Amino acid sequence: MKLLVRNLAVATTEEKLISLFSEHGKVQSCSLVLDSKTGKSKGFGFIEMPKAGEAKAAVKSLNGLKLAGNNIRVKKAESKVAETEVTEKKVASIQFKQMPKINSNADSADQDIIDNTDNSANLYGKVKKSDDY
Question: Model pTM greater than 0.90?
Answer without folding.
Answer: no
